[in-house]
Amino acid sequence: AQMWMGWGLAPVALAGHSMGENTAACLAGVIGFDDCVRLVHLRGQLFDTLPAGGMLSVNLPADRLRPLLGDRLDLGVENAPELSVASGPVDALDELEGRLRAEGIDCQRIAIDIAAHSRMLDPILDRFRAFLQSIPLAEPQIPLTSNLTGAMMTPQQATSPDYWVDHLRHAVLFADCIGMVGAPNRILLEVGPGKALTALARQHPGVTANQVLSSLRHRDDAVPDDLHMFEVLGRLWALGADIDWGQVWGDAPRARVTLPGYAFQRARYFIAPGKAQASAPPQYLMRQGEVADWGWKPVWHPRAADTGIDVDHGLADADPQVWLMFMDDAGLGSRAAARLRAAGHTVIEVRPGDTFTRLSDTSYLLAPERGREGYELLLRDLAQRGQVPTRIAHLWMVTGGEDHRPGSSFLHRLQEQGFYALLFLAQALAEENLPRPLHMVVVTNGAARVRDESLHYPVKATIAGPARVIPRELPGVTVSTLDLALPDAPSGGLLGGRKARAAQGNAVKALTSQLLEELLAEPSGAIAALRGGRRYVRTVRPVPLPAP
C-alpha cells in the first residue's frame, strides 16, 4: 500500500474486510504499525484457544439467510448483495449445508476452522478489549469504512476499544462498505494477495468491473509479479489515475517511442452501380411426421478439397485473386501468402495492433478490442485505394501460443479475434457493400472435434455462429471453415533436434499446401478439418431417436 501511495496514488478512502480493516486503520493512522502487528498476533493466539468451528458461504442475501440460521449460528459476513456467510459450530453448519443443498441453493465451506464473527468468540473478547485499552488509538487521517456499520467510520468509533471488540465479534458488512466507496468516478484497488476482494467488489451493482483492479496476481496465474504490477499500473493510468512516473522509473533511462500517425476517417459517398444476381429458388424444410425421424448426427467423411489445380507445381494456373488475410501468429498464413504472391496474387495482410494503421500498401494493423470501427476503416480504405478483396482468409484463430495483450487474457483474445472479429467484419462488409460474390475461409486450430479426439479450445468453436449466419444474411457471401493441427515443436539433442526440425519443416510445408488447396477451392459452406495429412468434411446423417 505504501508503494502505491509513493507512486502518487493517494487514497481518498480505505475499506478493509475483517482483519483487513485493522490494516486499513493502520494506514489511516488510527493504530500504530507495531501495535497493529501485535494486535493481529494476539488475534491469532486467542483464536487458537477456541473450540473448532467453521464458516459457510451461501449464495443468498443476508435477509434470506438469517431466518435459516437457527439459535446456534450467526451471520458472519455479508460479502455481496447475493452472497453471505454463516458462522458457528461444525455440526450446525453441516445441518444447514444439507438443508441448503436439498433446496438447490449453492453453498461452500470456507477453508477456516474458526467461527469468526460469531458468538463462539465471546470467551476471548475481554482479553482482546484489554489489549486495545492499553494502546493509543487516534482519529483517522484518511477516511475509511466500518465493517460493523457498513458506513464511514466516525472518529468516536475509531478511538473506541469497544468498537474494535464489536468489529471482531459481529458480522462484516463488506457489501455495504463497497457501496460507500464505489462511486462511478472511483478506482477500487485491492492491496493484498489474490483477487478475492476484487471478485466481491465486482458483484456490487454500483460498481463496474473495469474500475476494480488487484495489485498482486493470483497464485495460479503464470505471469511474473513485476509484469502483472506494471499491467495494473497501466490500467490505473488508463482509468485516469495520476501516476508519479518519476517515482516509478527512478533514474532508469527511457527511450521515446514513435506512435503511428492518425488515420483520417474519410467517407466515400459514391453509389456504385449494382449487378444483377440470379437467386436460387428458396428451399423450405418439411416437417417430419414421426418424432423418431427427427434425429440427426454429425459425422466426418474423408473428402479432398474441390481444387482444380496442383498447388505445389501449378499454383500460377489459378485465377489471380485479391486476398484479405488476417494473419496468424504461428507463421502459417505468412507461408501461404508468400506462395500466393509468387504466383501473381495480391495479398493484403492484417494483424492485431493497438490502433488502425496502414503500414504499407499491403499491410495493416487493426485493434480487435475496439469493435467494429477498425473493420469499417479497413474496408473503406481498401475500397478507396481500389484494392477490393475477392477472397478473405481469416487465420487469427490459428494460435501457436497463449499470449495476450497486457491487461487482457487469452480467453478475451480468442473472443475478440474470433467470434467478434467475424461479427464486426460481416457488419462492415454489409455497410461498405463490397462487390460479390465473395468467399471467406475461417481457419482455426483446436476448435473442432473429429470423432473421439479432445477439444482443446472450446471458445474457438464459437466462430461457427457467424460462419453459419453470415451467408444467410449477406447474399453472395459464402463462408467455409477449416480446423487444422499445427505440427509439434522440435525437441531432442543436437542430432535428434536436427532431424526433428527437418521433420517439422516438412510437416509445415505439407500443411501450407493443404491450406492453399482449401483457400483456392470452389466456394462453398464446407465444414472441414485436416488431421494426419487427410481432409475430413462434416455432414449430418439421420439417426432414429429412441422411444420416450
Summarize the structure.
This protein is of the alpha/beta class and 548 residues long.
Word description of this protein:
With 548 residues, the chain is α/β, with parallel strands linked by helices. The protein contains 17 helices and 16 strands. The strands form 3 sheets. It has a 10-stranded mixed sheet with strand order 7-16-15-14-13-12-8-9-11-10, sandwiched between helices. A 4-stranded antiparallel sheet has the order 2-3-1-4. Helix 15 packs parallel to helix 16. The longest helix has 26 residues, at 494-519. The chain is elongated.
Kindly list the characteristics that best describe this protein.
four-stranded antiparallel beta sheet; alpha/beta; ten-stranded mixed beta sheet; 548 residues
Structural class: alpha/beta
Strand order of the largest sheet: 7-16-15-14-13-12-8-9-11-10
Outline type = elongated
Mean pLDDT: 90
- Through-space gap between termini: 63 Å
Query: How large, in whole angstroms, is the Cα Rg?
Result: 31 Å
Number of helices: 17
Main beta sheet, described?
A: 10 strands, mixed
Write the layout of secondary structure elements.
Blueprint: H1 2-6, H2 19-27, H3 33-48, E1 54-58, H4 62-65, E2 74-80, E3 83-88, H5 90-102, E4 107-109, H6 125-133, H7 155-158, H8 161-169, H9 174-181, E5 188-190, H10 196-202, E6 212-214, H11 225-238, H12 245-249, E7 296-302, E8 322-326, H13 332-342, E9 346-352, E10 357-360, E11 363-366, H14 372-384, E12 391-397, H15 410-432, E13 438-445, H16 464-473, E14 477-484, H17 494-519, E15 527-531, E16 534-542
Parallel strand pairs: 5-6, 8-9, 8-12, 9-11, 12-13, 13-14, 14-15
Antiparallel strand pairs: 1-3, 1-4, 2-3, 7-16, 10-11, 15-16
Helix pairs in contact: 3-6, 6-8, 13-17, 14-15, 15-16
